[in-house]
Structure formats: structure tokens, C-alpha cells
Amino acid sequence: MASSVLSSASLSFHGIHKGKSNLGGINKGKIDTFIKSKCFGRISMVAASNVSRFEGITMAPPDPILGVSEAFKADNHELKLNLGVGAYRTEELQPYVLNVVKKADKLLLEKGENREYLPIEGLAAFNKVTAELLFGADNPVMKQQRVATVQGLSGTGSLRLAAALIERYFPGAKVLISAPTWGNHKNIFNDAGVPWSEYRYYDPKTVGLDFEGMIADIKAAPEGSFILLHGCAHNPTGIDPTPEQWEIIADVIQEKNHVPFFDIAYQGFASGSLDADASSVRMFVARGMEVIAAQSYSKNLGLYAERIGAINVVCSSPEAAARVKSQLKRIARPMYSNPPVHGARIVANIVGDSTLFSEWNAEMEMMAGRIKNVRHKLFDNLSSKDKSGKDWSFVLKQIGMFSFTGLNKAQCDNMTNKWHVYMTKDGRISLAGLSLAKCEYLADAIIDSYHNVS
Ligand code: KET
Fold first, then answer.
1. Is the minimum distance from the CB of 184 to ligand 1 under 6 angstroms?
2. What residue owns the CA closest to ligand 1's atom 15?
3. Ligand 1 proximity of 269 Cβ (cutoff 6 Å)
4. Which residue of the set 182, 196, 360, 392 is catalytic?
5. H or E element, residue 277
6. In the predicted structure, residue 34 carries a pLDDT above the cut 60
7. Which cofactor does it need (predicted)?
8. Which of 103, 174, 299, 325 is catalytic?
9. Cβ–Cβ < 8 Å for 152, 294
10. Dihedral sign, CA of 316, 320, 322, 327?
11. What pLDDT, in 10s, does the model give residues 309-318?
């Protein structure tokens, strides 16, 4: 304590520095008296000017998703359940590090690679495999070098780069986002200064897709708009278009000369298959369309904190792709200079090694399978416990990490305040944070909130 008083004092007051060596045996009370007596004038001066320059800055609200985890931590109730953030948990509700990631980590440690800066665009080996995973290694766009791929700070950072590109090179162009969508999309486009509006997506009556509304709104958007689409496992609704509906969406986007802009944060997590989950993106590319796609490895490899993902822009010529890539680098450089290396090496090593790659696929299937199991158990519990005759089958129709319960804000508040179930206020629950053992408790909480809170 005494030394911290001394060192902080010595930082602020040059005069004390000299005295420091003479104070070896003095206790804290004496030091305080010493500081006050020697420097009283100076201290009161500091206090007088102690009105913060930041006085006008108001308190920001908690983040609607990540803020839920903070509230969860602060609750001491033994039955508490965190179904807020989309992060995979084991059946014991513990965070999960994939075995294949542990293996890749060990190999990287053995190799003892250096920590030099990456190039602005990221690790070349990562950029190659990430585009191949998304589009397919034998996709002609890869051979024709028509894809500009830049490693980003996971899905969020990659979306942000694309947003900056749109703001700079398509001034005034609008991004259309689904209603509802992942909460951070609006923040990303707002901060990048990109105007956005919503297209209809979710129909509360059917707890399904409002396909007609979606098509009408995309048709009505100004020509050349950017249409943000969730590649698979739509967040927060868990409702994806069917393959036939995807084709119609692509028809309309093509007719209107819009640009499809995919956010694909759950590849492999929706169905358990990387290829199946990329089929929407690949279908658009196969039509010869120019496509933007932001990828994330937070969920499918559990690399949440490594911040690893990529932005891909499929262009109609290799020359355009090279120019787009150069401009993405130009945007990244003053934002964060260059991306982190560790997650990129993990992905590149896993995808580049056939044994590790198949192990990854098996673990992804296991994770997707666990989520499907709790989805079924939750549905069974809801159906058997709720005697009102309400149809809960929508839970089974949804896909991916989430279930959109249809609970309103007051009902969600009841889930948290009465039942200690933490979830986002839009009615979304992360099934990845649920165990089979907790399904019955959750069903009780949902039934109570649905029927007893209006
Ligand atoms: N897109 C979507 C659709 C998405 O759900 C997330 C994360 C991201 C992008 C970005 O993830 P990143 O870790 O930046 O690669 N969603 C979960 C976490 C979050 O909100 O940040 C969630 O919805 O809970």
C-alpha cells in the first residue's frame, strides 16, 4: 500500500521523487502527512480542476445480447440459466474447447511460430481455406481468382469492413436487413454511416417466414440495394427459407440488380454439414452474381475470443476482385492495422490437414446434434406440460442455435425475474446454453410466462 502511494505520488509530483529513497521505513500515515504537508497546494489545485472533460457523456445502455451475460453473472440463484448469448455449452453447461482446436494449438506450440505482423489482408493460408470452405474448393470463382478475401475480426469485424466499403464506394446505397435480425447489424451499419431499412421476415401469426412480405419488400427496395441475408440458421428466429424460396429470393435480387450480402456465422452449425449450410451462398454464386459474404469461426470452431473470420467479395472479374481487396486493406489499415494470427493459424491448420478436418466435422455434428436433442426435449416438455392445447411445434421447425419463443418483453422479464432464465428481450433463447436436464425447468418457465403474463 505504502509503495503504491509512493509510486502514484511520484508520478504526479516530481518533488517527491527525490524523497522516495529517504522514506524507506516510514509508515503509510506518515507518508500521507508528508505528501499533504509538502504538496498541499498542488493537491488542492488538482481537486479544483477535477471537473471531468467527459461530464457530458451519458451512460450507455447495456448491450442487448452481451449485457445479458453480465446480468447472469451477477445473479446468485442456483437455478439460473444463461440462454442469452449464442455460445455453445456442454451438457454440464460449461464452455467447450473443441478437441481438434486443442490439437491444432499443440501443433502450433511445437512449431514455435513467430509473432510477426500479418499482412493487412491476413494469413494467406487462412484466406485460401476460408474462401474454399464457403464457396467450395472447386468453385470456378476460386480458379478464376474472382474472390477478394480479407481476414477480418471475426464476423462482426468482417461485416464492419464490408459496411465501410459500401459507405465509401456506394454512397447513399441502402442495406436491407431482415425484421428481426441479429441486434448488432443495425449498430454496424449505423456506425459505418450506411442507411438501412428492414424487409419483412418473421410472421408472428405462424411463427414462421413471411415469405410474401420478404419478396415484396426486396422488390420495392431501390435498385442496386444491398440485401443482407443470413446464410443459414437465421438469428434470432431460427427460420430459414426453403431451397425453392432461396431461388425466388435470388430471382428478385437479380431482377432488381441488388447485391446479395450474406452474413454466415453458423456454417456447419445449422445442419452439422459445412457444405449443406453454405448451399444458399453457393447457389447465388453459381448464378454468376456478385456476392458479399462475411464469415465467422466463433461458433463452428468455438473460437469466440480469437476473433477470426473473413470478408469475401465475389466479383465479376479478377481485376475487380484485386481492386476491391486493395480497398478493403486500405479500410482495415487505419482501423486495426492487421488482424490477429492465432485463430487464423488454427483454422488454416485444421482445414489443411485431412485428419484434423474430419475430426472437426465430427465435433461440429456432435455440437449440432446436442442442440437438436435439447430442442426435441424442450418441445416434448412444452407439449406434455402445457394443457392449453397451444401448438409448440414451431420449436421443432426452427434451426440452429436459437429458438424464437414468441414471448414478448414483459414475458421475457418474467422469465428472468421470476425464473432466473436469462435471455434477450426479443424472445430468443440460445438452445446451445441449455442441457437436457434443464429442459423441464425451462418449459415450466415458458408456460408460466406465456399464460400468466400478458
Ligand atoms: N452474425 C450473426 C448473425 C451473429 O449471430 C453473430 C454473433 C455474428 C455475426 C458475429 O459473431 P462474431 O463473434 O463477431 O464472429 N452472434 C452472437 C454473439 C454476439 O451477439 O456477438 C449472438 O447473437 O448471441
1. yes
2. 155
3. no
4. 182
5. helix 274-277
6. no
7. pyridoxal 5'-phosphate
8. 299
9. yes
10. negative
11. 999 999 999 9
Are 407 and 63 in contact by the 8 Å Cβ rule? The answer is no
Cα separation values, 5 from 35, 102, 306, Å: 9, 43, 37
Question: What is the rounded CA–CA span in Å between residue 232 and residue 239?
Answer: 9
Tell whether pTM > 0.85: yes
Supply the residue whose CA is at minimum distance from atom 11 of ligand 1. 155
CA dist., res. 197 & res. 185, Å (int): 11
Q: Name residue 200's beta-bridge partners.
A: 179
Residue 203 is among the residues annotated as catalytic for this protein: no
**DSSP secondary-structure letter at 437?**
G
Pairing of strands 226-230, 175-179: parallel
Tell me if residue 444 is catalytic. Answer: no
Cell numbers for 172, please give them: 447513399
- The type of residue at 61 is P
Residue 346, classified by CB atoms within 10 Å of its CB into exposed (0-12), middle (13-18) or buried (19+), is buried
Testing ligand 1's pocket by substitution, the residue of 156, 186, 299, 425 carrying the most ligand atoms inside 8 A of its CB is: 156
Contact in structure between 424 and 404 (CB atoms under 8 Å): no
Name, in order, each residue with C-beta under 8 angstroms of 145's C-beta and a sequence gap of 6 or more: 318, 321, 322
Q: At residue 321, what is the residue type?
A: A
Amino acid identity, residue 202? Answer: Y
Residues 357 and 274 sit within 8 Å (Cβ to Cβ): no
Q: How far is CA 230 from CA 182, 236, 261, 296, 432, in A?
A: 9, 10, 9, 12, 19
**CA 113 from centroid of its chain's CA atoms:** 28
The finding on whether 309 has its CB within 6 A of some atom of ligand 1 is: yes
Q: Please work out whether the CB of residue 231 comes within 6 Å of at least one atom of ligand 1.
A: no
Q: Which residues, in sequence order, are bridge partners of residue 378?
A: none
Q: What is the DSSP string of 225-250?
A: -EEEEESSS-TTT-----HHHHHHHH
* Structure-block grid coordinates of residue 22: 529517504
- Residue 32: pLDDT above 60? no
Q: What is the pLDDT of residues 223-269, one digit of tens each?
A: 999 999 999 999 999 999 999 999 999 999 999 999 999 999 999 98
List Cβ neighbours of 40 (8 Å cut-off, separation of 6 or more): none
Alpha-carbon span 33 to 50, nearest angstrom: 22
426 CB under 6 A from ligand 1? no
Residue of 250, 303, 296 whose CA lies nearest to 277: 296
Instruction: Compute the CA torsion angle 7, 9, 13, 18 (nearest 10 deg).
Output: -50
Q: How far apart are CA 201 and CA 404, in angstroms?
A: 13
pLDDT digits (tens, 9 = 90+) for 341-365: 999 999 999 999 999 999 999 999 9
